[in-house]
User: Fold these one by one.
Assistant:
Number 1:
Amino acid sequence: MNNRLPPAWSKHLKGPPGPKIPQSKIAQPKASPQSRARLDDALLRQALELHQANRLVEAEALCQRVLAHNPRHPLALYLLGTFALGLDDEMAIRCFERAVKEAPLNPHYHLTLGETYLKVGEHPDAIRHFERACELKADWVEALCALGRAYTRYGKADIAVPLYEKALKIDGNHPATRMGLANALVSLGRMDEATSSMKEAIGHRQDVAAAYAGLVSIRKFMDEPAEFKSILAELKNPALDEKSIQQLHYAAGKVLNDIRRYDEAMDHFRQAKRSMRHFDIQGYRRSIDFMIDLFSPETLADKAGHGSSSEVPVFVLGMPRSGTTLTEQILGSHPEVRGAGELTKLRRITNGLAPKTRSPEELRRSILDMTVDQSKSLAEEYLAHIRRQSPDAERIVDKLPHNFELIGLIRILFPKARIIHCRRDAIDNCISCYFLSFNEDNTYTADLHTLGLYYREYDRLMRHWDCVLPGQILENRYEDMVSDQERQSRRLIDHLGLPWDDACLRFFDKPGSVNTFSRWQVRQPIYTSSVNRWKGYGSSILPLIEALGDLSGN
């Protein structure tokens, strides 16, 4: 998405790329509107070339030159937003919003703004702009699929399905249609239909690696399935890109793990991890030191009386694959609770506390200097965001696992919020993370040793929170949940301050969509086969056990 420009680019910048413009000729104060427009076109072409050459500062400077004399230039604003993607998504949104304001009939601008809103988890805004793109450009398959994706992630996959079906009728060869439809169907628990859609995608050679990965993720295998040989055959294709290779290795590893061929499974998982970038564990250790130092008992005592008195937010957090989705589904089965999924809003609020440098010291100063009014304003911003999910629910669950890093801020903004910490056997938790294809924010899963060290830092921070906030965080152990579902479920509902409802025991029958890696598992009654699964891997997980040290229990 970073380098993508709308097809309308050619309408704005006519003719072949021009020569580089000497600085002395960039700004002509008496230039005619026509010559000024030509100079702007050339500047923006050069900005794009510089961006593609990874010369980001120079590219941004050229866009700013255009905006200096024409602050409403939509294409310059669009490019500036494109350059900001991945570096400062909030800035990208501001630029795209301004571009849309200046060129409201450009469907490509609406599409890109929608995609950026979707990236940061602002689903209603994403949907609004995708719908506008569809209105402006009839039968645009890319926009229809984007709208379907947004509705799926928003927990409304039932609305997404007909959008994908419409897209299929318009262009059955578009690569996003069949897998988009399959993902929506999986989110709804319609596994047979999803399987058919994924098999059709393979038959049409559309997103083949993702289709195989999807097929093996929605069932548990007792014997080697026919798909396994096909996956191995696909891996022999010399034209595969890195992402497809990774997806196919994860798929092969999943099948082999199911059928207990552990050494072969581990070999595929290792190959899947090869392209992942290095995780700076020392830097992460310093960030945990910073959080422990900042959110001291003294700081938290000083901020008593800050924030909102609302009891609506519930934060379910912990390591990924620790049972957060299962916990949210149980809670969300209660008629007075809404499960909102993995929300990024709290992290974006945190980033906004250090907008100039994103440095720890800027964040420290913002936290220490935060007034009561500022804390209430931030809390209201978060509440308004989650209320868009459900205006009337008594409790709304945010289950972003890595919010465990932000418990100090949570407690300042919401002194009465419920916090549930999901914990699981350290080795089982880590290998479950290792077996999955997480996004680029989770590169600590790239190797077992780093993963074990990361777990230790997570554990160290959680021990700090338990120390400075005694009795305020409910620990929910995965092993206890699967061995005594009713007792633990009642304990969870009691923690939320709500009356018991038997619907919580049949969470797997809950209607609606699920959009995490656990979306197949949470459609099943509770099972115990994931407890002590690590014991089959023997010496191949020694780097993990050594890194975990005393936390491994060995």
Number 2:
Amino acid sequence: MRWSKALIPTLKETPADAVAPSHVLLLRAGMIRQLGAGAYTYLPLGLRVLNKAIRVIRAEMDAAGAQELLMPALQPVELWKESGRYSTFGDLLMQLTVGGNQTMALGPTHEEVITDIVRALVRSYRQLPVTLYQIQTKFRDEPRPRFGILRTREFLMKDAYSFDADVEQLNASYDAMYEAYCRIFDGCGIPYVVVEAESGPIGGDSSHEFMVPSSTGEDTIIQCLKCGYAANRERAEIGPITAKTAPDASAPPYESVSTPNCRTIEEVCKFLKVPETESAKLLVFLADDKPVAALIRGDHEANEAKVRRAFGASTLVPADTATLEKATGAPIGFLGPVAIKIPLVVDSSVAVMPKVVVGGNAVDVHLTGVVPGRDFSLDKVLDLRNADEGDPCPRCGESMAVKQGIEIGHVFKLGTKYSKAMGATYLDEKGAEIPIIMGCYGIGVNRIVAAAVEAGHDANGIIWPLPLAPYEVLIVPLQTQSADVMAAAESLERQFEAAGLDVLFDDREQRPGVKFKDADLIGIPLRVVIGERGLKEGNIEVKWRTDEAAHTVPAATAGEAILAEVEAARQKHRELGAERRKARSEAKGR
């Protein structure tokens, strides 16, 4: 491709509404253009990157035994009502009326559609297992689209669904997709972390997210840098808490203290002149519609997923004011664990406190000097809070770190949630009708592009990994009016294209400085510069985007030398991916 004929509308200035590096640089590099809030056009360079990611995804999904299909983006809302998600998905579901009175939805995901297909076409255990996938545009009425293509209303997704006869088959399907995802993201050349994720009411340790560490990421990763344990904040466990002191049953009795108009932890602790670390808050929830309570240290945040699991509940929601007061007899802001009448679970950080300030179960009253285990029950002590920086790792006990990340993929086991609701069953060997067990596996294709830029950029522009780069090699003839320069450049172009490389040829009548700035901005991995002086000296300049300085190769053998460098870079990329997979496999085995 000749640059002079290509649509590459680079920008010198940063767009005013762009904040995230990927948003800024993809706009400036002429790869995307915004049409409206949360909707972007992929210009030729951007589409090439997107298609490179799709190529890697499709190759690894096919290699893992998944079969590709393509489902409609337009879905009947009746399917959503059948699954029970029509009322729970909320305003994110984009709806429209067609044919006069039929309500349809623009699919944000395809669990209902794929389940409808399989229940009609799969009837026998002999047809299982099967994994189906598609690469399709999705729609969600995102209320706050931002960060360019990281959070949009229209996006491209690879979604796959496994259908299995039993748990053993599901585990095999899940493992195959997990490994395929590792190969996909290794193949794309982006740094990522596999983290344990919350699997929801289905239960079990059957959910993993694939995250790219980034300061602009909206997800939180809790990671142990020693043993490799990693989880998202919703799922992250906390190791045993070592306390310097312990509850003392012989301590003086607790005291009731007037705390007028002090409802929040901050207000109470400021009034009593005690740190928030010496207080605790009682939170009341409805677990499967029954009131329950969780006691959390004042400066900590409750993890509702952990609380739900603590009570073995399928659903957990905060109790409304009326239910809360009826269940506890106390007003909001003054709830406490002493003499509580509903089931109570205590966070492990509270259980080791020598004494604690808690609500007094009466307006404007708090209790000081309350001793855990003496003044309220410690029959059920569990990890109930969000993990924080420095908390002990649940595997090795070392301090954990907190990072922000961009979720690019998610694998989890659905179980029979959709198959039972929608009647997707198979006949076993004895002719009995059994619900099919499902798994779900998603990749945000657009997010791969954005995450690659977030992970690979500098002050000059994008630094694409070789597998995703729109072009692998940029040839820059410095004097386009020189017959010798153009002949040498075109000879290399033919040689590279014959070897299968994607080549961009900068034939513009521009100063070298302009060409080099644009080259760095769009981030093509390898720049080859041909100039009159270099040819006279018998050299051609070569510079990798990741290197500080250029180097030269003999002009007579430049093609072979550069192709050898590209192959060495590819081999290094393959070896790095293999090393990552080996390290993860060893970590899983520990």
Number 3:
Amino acid sequence: MLKLCAAVSLAAASVSAMAGNGDVVPGLLETDRIIVKYKDAAPAAKGLARAAAVTGDRKAKLDRAGQQFGMTVRESHIISTGAQVFKLNGKRGLKDVQDLAAEMMARDPNIEYAEPDRIMTHMATANDPMYTQQWHYTDATGGLRLPTAWDKSTGSGVVVAVIDTGFRPHADLSGQFLPGYDFITDTFMANDGNGRDSDASDPGDAIAVGECGNGQPTQARNSSWHGTHVAGTIAARTNNGAGVAGVAYNAKLVPVRVLGKCGGYTSDIADAITWSSGGSVSGAPANANKARVLNLSLGGAGACSATTQTAINGARSRGAVVVVAAGNDATNVANFNPANCAGVVTVAATGKTGGRASYSNYGTQVDVAAPGGDAGYGVLSTLNAGTKAPASDNYAYYQGTSMATPHVAGTAALMLAVKSTLTPDEIEAKLKSTARAFPASCSGCGAGIVDATAAVNAALSTSSGTVLAESEANNTMASADLVSVRGTTVNANLGSTTDTDYFRVDLPAGKTLVSVMTPGSSTADYDLFVYNSAGALMGKSENGLGAIETVNSANTGSATSTRYIRVVYYTGGTGATNGKYTLKLNW
């Protein structure tokens, strides 16, 4: 079971010395479920996905595959992607279930994919009296630069889904929650006496020694109330003379419960992503409050699963931006999902100095960074005082990429409140292009630290930007088209399979160039590269057919630095009609 790890260290009165993966339960690389999707399943569109029928022949092949590994396979339920979840006879190592999945696919060519149902875990100028302790909003060096953004946006009219442990009612969150849903199917994990239901409240996720299997955890752990802490950062009531402030305090929250004791299953998280963004999930009522921002402060080791990627793609198609914690293992984010999935905004954590937090994951798949706390400074937000079961309201400092992520989700809500037509890609591009340069070492932390005020200003801009037409022949760095106005969109095409196009930007000091190339056809595959003035590769994006390619390149120096952006043909159409693409350049 692969735990999606909550990037958080816990502290009630002061920050714990345990930064990073202090609440990760090691050794839970096992699961008792497998996800199978057949090729004749109908994908989810406007209605429910239709799962394929498990005929006698198909079930026999699944059973024979299970026999190879001493496992029995029993049908459990259908999820929103059209895939089916099967229960195994007990927990098995993740590698064993991966081998079972491969055997299933080898025996039945009708299976589109089979994969373990891995387990994830959580990753943690106002008159509010504790506002002065929220350095992560106001600090000129390491903070979000939030207060001046409030002059222009407070998040009104925007719905944010907190896909997490659920919520506890809290005086400082009164009136902020809309109806949510509990998607946990396993009654042990749910810890509330049942499976899925419309009650998204958090009963607690405390665990005893060995309760998660394989002797883990080795030490008992109290309830985290993780979702309540995340919710407070996004939208705690502000200017109410009590407690703390929230980033987008006039936004509304839809709590979606997917994490309980020992974590939560990938299949449940996928359904939560679908439902919270306005998609249909069998057995769950329609979500009357479609979220435009999804906050996933959770993660775990491994590649992005087909199940998760399908759910993310669906959410994006419905206009939701998906914001995900990078994780807390101080290693490359390429090895952690859903932070390594396509189309998400992946968030690393910084400390008060503006440098990378000691625990934060990093790498080329990180998009931006935000305050998550480090050393003696944590992120202050709403919590519950109960050690196991719920008790009274309180507040606590947590550290982690789980805490950095809601800063970015809240900023996205501020942007949408002033311009509701922003697409997920536009939100991501503006977050990156307006992020400020790191004041301390933060290698692999993305475009910079999110700047809430600059991001809102970018969203408010009514200019559609300059539109240029490509001028042939721009096939070398020496003949590159010069783009001198930020926000320019270039209309271009690849005239032949050997054509390549170059564009030049003279990037000011402290700015990050965001290059976004969109092919004109779903059957075209063009790749994007960025070089410095010496021709050294600064970054590249080589996705598949019809995919948008994005490359960020920061100028961390004190003088203007030239960047060359290159578009390269891989496969698909060519010519003035079939070879079209657009290139958006912003900084």
Number 4:
Amino acid sequence: MSNRLPPTWAKHLKTRPSGEAAPPNAVPTKAQPKVGLPRSQADDMLLRQALDFQKAERLPEAEELCLRVLERAPNHPLAFYILGTLGLGHDDEKALRYFARALGEEPQNPYYHLSLGAAYLKLSEFTPAIKHIQIALDLKPDLVEALCTLGKAYNESDRGEMALPLFEKALKIDRDHPLARTGLPHALASLGRMDEAAAHLKEAIEQRIAVPNAYNALVHTRKFTGEPPELAAILTELRNLDHGSDGAPALHHAAGKVLNDLGRYKEAMDHFKKGNQAGGHTFDLESYRRWIDAVVETFTPELVASRAACGNPSEVPVFIVGMPRSGTTLTEQICASHPNVHGAGELSKLRRVANGIGLTNCSNINLGESIAGMTPDLTRMLAEEHLAYLRERAADSLRIVDKMPHNFELIGLICLLFPNARIIHCRRDAIDNCISCFVLQFSDGHNYSADLQTLGLYYREYDRLMRHWDRIFPGRIFENRYETLIENQEEQSRRLIDYLGLSWDDACLRFFDKDRSVNTYSRWQVRQPIYKSSVKRWKNYESEIQPLIDALGDLAEI
């Protein structure tokens, strides 16, 4: 879900409070309705204008019109709904509230149920997400968007096999629907069925459906040993101006991936750089540094000692943290291969808790005040709620793993909530780690990775914070060095399982046979036995990455 209302949903939404859709010519050229129009018709016109503003990415103007409608009609469902879509991505809690209010006014509207479910899914709240999306399908069984969103929910909650028939049904209803065309191969790839995924992606490309993203997904289904016809096709697509700024990053990264496989590293890096530049991402490094400063100043040994008895003593939670591409998925796969461990994937729940109590990366937040507001009762309540959330995924597992890498920022919160939680920190050669981030088309939440110098400086801040956590939580955090795991898989795997407090199981050596959904860029790699080709991979690009090496400084192991 983005904060732009999908056209396929918008055309079904009724803009009049009475439920009667206004005629197309009811939308004026200006937002202000004509004098003398009935109030409901005037509201209708404003909301249609708000939808137009939203589609044009004029989001503040769309919000202002919705709020104007709510001043006159305080319970207008479509105004609530549009405000919900505007909140997605930057204030998801507000989006949930607005969608819920829209649904309260029209409880039989399948699109409102679908949007509320999709918002919950964005926050990894799988139980309410699936509930509302299923209600949408009960109300409108042929709603393709709901079938695909439910498939995505099952896929992300480690029930990939349940996702496949939903995408297949969606394709029977609409063979050319982008969500169905791209969703099915994604589900197949997450289950390791790469050849089938590739076949569906090729079909999508032939039908000219989501071409840039389809090519990007296609090239990640295999490793190329000879130049494939897809490379020339991708380079041709890059000359197609119809793809615009949204398509160029995906195509450049796709070309770079193929060229990297072929050992044509200079050409590959040229495409990776162009792809990141085309994305237009920026990152406020100074603001991030100030936030790290505040975290270091707030979380002291004295604070930790004073809160030692406030959390939940459960040993169930396990958090795998570190920079993205540091081996977090591989580590989770090894742990989750143990019969007493459930790998829950990347969960955003802890981030929601942090947002709720004011621990987010925001220069206007006083972290000391936020921590002071965490009374013993609130701490216990948050911990119990989080534990129940984890238990929904695997009620009987002795350990449940959340492998959201950026929870490295929240280790202080983890230790306050769960003093007995296991924390596994995945660390990798700094240059290798950064290059592996740079060459992938990450989401907007990873804007730091789009520029080599910024990426290196960001890595230094990550390293500074992790060293702080090691100082104030001595012996609590298990450092899982990627190179050590690659060099001696069994020995390091045994250390991991021992750290989890479990007896050894040989299944952990065959992690690549684990039958579960993997939804990160590592989904191909973690289904292969351990290989060493990714160690010191950065040397292939040495002549192209000096800004990164300079920014890393003494952390660069040359």
